[in-house]
Amino acid sequence: MAAILTVLFNGVAYGFLLFVMSVGLSVSLGMMNFVNLAQASFSMLGGYIFVTALQGYGIPFMLCLPIVFFAVAIVSVVLERLIFRYFYKTDDLTQVLLTIGLVFMSIAMATYVWGGTYQRFDMPAWIIGQKDVFGLTLETYRIFLVGFGAVMAVTLIFGLERTNLGAMVRACVDNRRVATACGLNTELIFAFTFAIGGGLAGLGGALSANLLGLDPNFPLRYLVYILIVVSIGGMGTITGTLVASLALGIADVMGKYYVPQFGSFIIYLLTVIVMLWRPHGLMGRGA
Amino acid sequence: MSEAVLETKNMHMAFGGLVIFEAIDFSLRRGDRHAIIGPNGAGKTTFINLVTGLLKPRAGEIWFDGRNVTQDTPQQRVKAGLVRTFQINSLFKALNPLESVMLALLEREGRSKPSLRTVAQEKPLIDEAMALLDRFGLAGDAFSITDALAYGKQRLLEVVLALALKPKVLLLDEPAAGLSTQQGHEVFAKLADLPGETAILFIEHDMNLVFQYADIVSVFAAGSMVLQDTPENVRASPRVREVYLGA
Amino acid sequence: MSATEAASQAAAPHEAGRDYFASLARWKVWEILFWATLAGCYFFPDIDRMLMSRVIIWGLFAMSLDVLLGYRGIPSLGHAVFFGVGAYVAGFLGKFGWTEPISGLFFAMFVAGALGLVMGKLVQRVTGVGLLMVTLGLNLIVFDFVLRSTELTGGDDGLQGIVIAPVLNYFRFDIWGRTAFWYAFVVAFVLFVVTRMLLKSPFGLALIGARENPRRMLTLGAPVEGDVSRAFMIAAALAGAAGALLTQTTQTAAPTYLSFQRSADVLVILIIGGAGRLYGGFIGAIVFILLQDYVSALSPVYWYFWIGLLLVIIVSFFRKGLLPSVEQLYDRLRSRKSAGPPG
User: Fold this and answer.
1) Looking at the DSSP assignment, which residues form a beta bridge with residue A5?
2) Residues C277-298: what's their mean pLDDT?
3) Do the strands B199-203 and B67-68 form a parallel or antiparallel pair, or are they unpaired?
4) Is C222 in contact with B119 (Cβ distance < 8 A)?
5) C-alpha distances out from residue B188 to A159, B59, B142, B208, C150, Å
């Protein structure tokens, strides 16, 4: 029993990581109908900035996180203004090609700057090791991840539901033309949302560096997971993304623990079934 | 009085709680030139969508050519000879008119299955396509990209595509919309030349066109058919004036 | 339009229509030149014939995606699955005693085509991002299966012990790639000719019609969804042939043949060349494979930087790919020449 709960807990921790990485893509898809595969590269960039700050400059762990968030947010908004905004009206395939081109470039650039091997670094002492919680022995870092992810999810959901800015963002997701006609500065809202989404992706990369390993192939390895989360959850819904992330995280960890011979087979199969059954995602709106 | 080729029996339609049609009994006879008129929101386009199968009625039956087609797909109805045009141009932008009409003809003849015969070998169909385009004054534009054609010509091409299927019933949703008065008359004059066995049902707002080209007129208002009569009687009817101007 | 012009067009509209479709089907001079040049590569001194046969195979593979994407307008992120299945089927045949290559090629096409038909039936109602995800997901499932079924497929190491008999019982596959080149060239050319005929047929026209406006095709009574699965089947069989060719000419089959990377590569090749032109795949393959060979020799790590940059530039400035952009330029030059004062 304890073993099952521990595995379940690890799945939840992984799920929150996926949530932080993919929520930005979900919102940009819902709002701008923009398929941004480079989201995975933002995560990788976040990971590298984090490792450089922590290991190279000895900056404390908790200070590294906001640095990563703002740095990646700035990079993503610069890219949005320079490139992405010209592609909002093109078809899905063009966007996929553009952003996968950027992913390819980012892989080569990361290799150039940080080398092709896995990054080795030391996490602070207080976050490694294990703790006993309700009779379960859990890794401290995963406990931190679950707490952090939960705070992020609650903040985002409430921020979107309860604040003025959230209302404007939702208006843009629902109907961009009407929102523009009502005098909302959609361009600014897009750029702002893009920055937050990018920053979160960077955070996700930073938090996963320790758990998933960081090398230049990171974007290609996790791109598929991010896409699965977004398409299963339904574009533009934060709750849907959260549910899909947690489900995927649990299914993946459990599957690899109990039926390792199937590997990722189960989640791929589930993805295909869900997409055939509900092409707009479990919580997505109909056509 | 000849037999009905298209009939609706007790057709009921609603979107959610909004009732569009209470119970419509409508019939179109072979060779009729039948106009549907009525104020905006009377359900005219919905009626066409129901008859062609894009929408399913909540209750009631649709009969076409002696068969109950209520459960048939739109494609099955097209194959049976029930063909429509759209209010807004719905064409093949990157193809030229000749290719577009060939699509319709090849589909009608069931010749679009995978094969190694080139389109060029379908000589009789190519000739038929050119003749059709010629009849509607489009032969000169046969090789221009559809997207680049003037709006009026695109409207004509809509009609030609529908006619290419040799329909038993042709449903035209505002064929003259967006055309000049003269162009509108040209379209209808061409339609009037069609062989008598093709029944035409058209929605039209231009009363001059309706009264000149229809043999029979149905007036729709607020989800029911208010009146069905000859153009002369409809023109004289006080009911119709009431419907249009509001009671 | 002048009165005489109008009269002459009205007088012989039928001839004009027949001529139009006849000219569409006719082989152009540049097409013949293209294939002659490709064949002529063989006689070039110092040419790497194995590399050239790989170019041809990738060209065929990209052409197969063109049927789906360029002609029917269906994007797929999982096209490598058909390539890989063709490769492994040909490999299994060679490993277990059926070494005759041509029948092996046909059988590989048949299996890949059947898989394509099933996949087409599955996705014929799905569009947009959902479609991208389903094709990607199915690709990953098969990839994962091949990678994990170590006993059957050799897993990561690939299929070992593939034996391929000489073509027509005479031309042995040699290390200089002489047989490989001609075998790949002839197969690719024959399949190209067949595909070309298929796309110039009424079926090809119907595919384009459904790409342009599927709803309108429905109201013409066309089996639009059925065409999706047929297009998938044809594209899959062609991709399977490309995969089988690679296995037979190199006597290896590896899981990378059906990786997501390969699906992305073939898409990139087609986009570089230009979709919907039939030759886009071959042009793209020539550019991509030769560039890859050259750049990788200099610095293999940075190959993906350049291909990524090329992709970004192409979707930004030449949205339709190289071939259509060249065509446009040619048309513009020609119209400028002919637009001189009337004389």
Assistant:
1) none
2) 88
3) unpaired
4) no
5) 59, 34, 21, 11, 71
Q: Could you report the per-residue pLDDT of A69-102, keeping only the tens digit for each?
A: 999 999 999 999 998 888 888 888 888 889 989 9
Residue C324 included in any domain:
yes
DSSP-assigned letter for residue C167: B
Residue with tokens 């110092």: C46
Element (H, E) at A232: helix A218-233
Measured in degrees and rounded to the nearest 5, phi and psi for residue B225 equal -90, 115
Spatial distance between the Cα atoms of C39 and A248, rounded to a whole number of angstroms: 51
Q: How many domains does chain C have?
A: 1
Sign of the alpha-carbon torsion through A145, A146, A152, A155: negative
Tokens of C233: 């089947």
For C148, the closest of A109, A261, A275 (CB atoms) is A261
Residue written as token pair 């990646």: A72
pLDDT of residue C337: 55
Range picked from A163-172, B72-81, C57-66 for highest mean pLDDT: C57-66
User: Cβ separation of A96 and C268 shorter than 8 Å?
Assistant: no
Q: Which two tokens stand for residue C35?
A: 């294939």
Residue A175 has which token pair?
A: 């109907």
Interatomic CA distance for residues A204 and C295, integer angstroms: 33
Domain around C164: 28-338
Contacts C194 to B, Cβ<8 Å? 116
Contact (Cβ atoms closer than 8 angstroms) between residue C217 and residue C207: no
CB–CB contact B99 C205 (8 Å): yes
CB contacts, 8 Å: A98 with chain C: 311-312, 315-316
Phi, psi (degrees; rounded to nearest 5) at A229: -55, -50
Of B84, B92, B102, the CB nearest to C213: B92
Question: Does the residue C23 lie in any domain?
Answer: no
Domains annotated for chain B, with CATH where assigned, are 4-245 (3.40.50.300)
Give the CA angle between residues A37, A39, A45 to the nearest 5°: 130
Which among C133, C144, C312 has the least Cβ separation from residue A227? C133
Backbone φ/ψ region at B61: left (φ over 0), alpha (ψ -120 to 50), beta: beta
Q: Would you mind telling me the total number of residues written for chain B in this entry?
A: 247
Question: Mutual orientation of helices C128-148 and A218-233 as an angle, nearest 10°?
Answer: 130
- Residue B111 CA to residue B114 CA, distance in Å, equals 9
Size of chain C, expressed as the number of residues it contains:
343
Token pair 């396509």 is at which residue?
B129
H-only helix segments in A115-217: 140-162, 164-174, 176-181, 186-212
Q: At how many degrees (to 10) do helices C178-199 and C49-66 cross?
A: 20
Distances B80 to B52, B103, B161 between C-alpha atoms, Å: 11, 17, 16
Distance, CA of A4 to CA of A10 (rounded, Å): 10
3-state class of B227 per DSSP? strand
* Residue C136 near chain A (CB below 8 Å): yes
Is the ipTM value over 0.85, yes or no?
no
| Residue B172, both tokens | 């035209």
Instruction: Answer whether residue C3 is part of any domain.
Output: no
Question: Residue C9 — very low, low, confident or very high, per pLDDT cuts 50/70/90?
Answer: very low
Q: Give the pair of three-digit tokens for residue A231.
A: 């398409």
Phi-psi region of C143 (alpha: psi -120 to 50; beta: other; left: phi over 0): alpha
Angle between helices A218-233 and A92-114 (to 10 degrees): 150
Question: CA distances (Å), A85 to each of A75, A90, A186, in order?
Answer: 14, 10, 12
Average pLDDT over residues B162-169: 87
pLDDT at C6: 47
With contact defined as beta carbons under 8 Å apart, do B9 and B191 qualify? no
Q: CA angle C277-C280-C285, nearest 5°?
A: 165
Q: By the 8 A CB rule, do B31 and B215 touch?
A: no
CB contact under 8 A, A96 and C133: no
Nearest-angstrom CA–CA distance, A38 and C312: 12
Say if C299 falls within a structural domain: yes
